[in-house]
Write a structure and sequence with these properties.
Elements (H helix, E strand, L loop, with lengths): L2 E3 L13 H16 L8 E2 L6 H4 L5 H9 L4 H7 L5 H24 L1 E4 L20 H11 L6 E5 L6 H6 L6 E8 L12 E5 L5 H19 L3 E5 L17 H18 L3 E4 L8 H19 L2
Helix pairs in contact: 1-10, 5-6, 8-9, 9-10
């Protein structure tokens, strides 16, 4: 059974310019049900993540300032959203959704969060509309509770997972892999365990060839028993911010490769949605829905 975290009504930032990309989090589950990909019974409702769990990946002073709404103005600007209790609660739901989905993945092979992929949040900072790093917290949760011994975070968003790399720099059991636009945000990169920088304008064939060789190498080198997959669709040619030129089919084949590589090795996968900023919302939603369809195909639901 496919298990998918679906969240309480999303809090849209006050700045109208951010309303459009946030809309996808409402449309993805609706489209999945409309197309008959899943039923309502596939979804579960997360809770607010526990402070003690968040602290497995984030600095205590930073987390407390978030919870108390006392972040300094410079950090609020770095995050890009006006700070509010509703926004912080939204992030706590995201984190718990990914924690729960990672546990479901161990039972079913793969599980999803309809949002998440907040990979720009580092140990003691938020950035790029990310306050807390859902997959980093979930990875630390599994590791601390001995539910996984060696974890690989595969981040295929067009933007580097700098926050994730910051959190796990030097970690001997949680490894970070980021394949991203070399000249894209963030402009000052962190060092992942594996970084694969891409030139602007890369198309399907070159991208998929590089993906297959580098992910295979990472799986062989780190031998994970759990994978977190950040499946951003901002690699599409239609994306306003991505600078790559992948087709919708290329994006689907990307997902298929990751899922097959993990399924063949018996590695459970938790999937968070990551970025997507195409001009037309249908392009974003369709690409994300394809990720679910591809997981169902590969894992045989």
């Amino acid at each position: 059974m496919l298990r998918i975290a679906h969240h309480p009504a999303y809090i849209h930032p006050l700045r109208e310019g951010h309303r459009f990309p946030m809309l996808k989090y409402e449309l993805i589950p609706a489209q999945l049900i409309h197309e008959g990909v899943v039923t309502a019974t596939s979804f579960f409702m997360p809770k607010l993540a526990q402070r003690t769990d968040v602290l497995l990946a984030h600095d205590e002073a930073y987390v407390q300032a978030l919870l108390d709404l006392t972040l300094d103005a410079k950090m609020v600007r770095r995050i890009g959203f006006p700070l509010s209790k509703e926004l912080v609660d939204r992030e706590l739901y995201l984190v718990d959704g990914t924690i729960q989905a990672s546990i479901f993945a161990q039972q079913y092979g793969v599980a999803f969060n309809t949002a998440g992929g907040t990979h720009h949040a580092g140990r003691d900072f938020g950035e790029g509309f990310c306050l807390l790093n859902d997959q980093a917290v979930a990875a630390a949760y599994l590791f601390r509770r001995k539910l996984a011994e060696r974890i690989l975070i595969i981040d295929l968003d067009v933007h580097q997972g700098n926050g994730t790399a910051h959190i796990f720099a030097g970690h001997g059991n949680i490894f970070t892999f980021s394949m991203h636009g070399e000249k894209n945000f963030p402009f000052i990169k962190e060092r992942s365990h594996v970084d694969v920088p891409l030139p602007d304008g890369m198309e399907d064939e070159a991208y998929l060839g590089l993906l297959e060789s580098t992910v295979e190498q990472a799986l062989l080198r780190y031998e994970p028993d759990f994978v977190f997959y950040q499946a951003g669709v901002d690699i599409l040619a239609t994306d306003k911010l991505g600078k790559l030129k992948l087709s919708e089919e290329g994006c689907r084949l990307r997902d298929k490769f990751v899922f097959k590589a993990c399924r063949e090795r018996g590695i459970p996968v938790q999937v968070s949605m990551g970025g997507g900023y195409s001009v037309h919302i249908k392009d974003i939603v369709n690409a994300h829905v394809n990720t679910y369809k591809t997981a169902i195909e590969v894992f045989g639901f």
